[in-house]
Amino acid sequence: MRGQIQAAIETGYVAMELNPNNSDVAARLGLYLFTAGRWEEGADLAARSAQMDRNGVSDGLLTRALDAYRLGRF
């Protein structure tokens, strides 16, 4: 399972390079990073996704909510 998460992260970074303004890619990659224990990196990408799409992408919203919970901001 760990190898699959790492592969998803690597693929996500490639997708970000190819399409840096895609809020869906940023949000999904942020969620993968967050669940892999790379909390700050994941939360930063979720915030970036929110800046790209003011309506909010569900993966980005989930990552931001989990980060707020992790930090005791709920």
Description:
The chain is an all-alpha fold and 74 residues long. The protein has a single domain, classed as Tetratricopeptide repeat domain (Serine Threonine Protein Phosphatase 5, Tetratricopeptide repeat). The protein is built from 4 helices and no strands. Helix 1 runs antiparallel to helix 2 and helix 2 packs antiparallel against helix 3. The radius of gyration is 12 Å and the shape is flat. The mean pLDDT is 93.
In short:
The protein is an all-alpha fold and about 70 residues long. The protein has four helices and no strands.
Fold-level CATH name: Serine Threonine Protein Phosphatase 5, Tetratricopeptide repeat
Order of helices and strands, N to C?
Answer: HHHH
CATH homologous superfamily annotation: Tetratricopeptide repeat domain
**CATH architecture descriptor:** Alpha Horseshoe
| Poorly predicted spans | none
Count of domain modules:
1
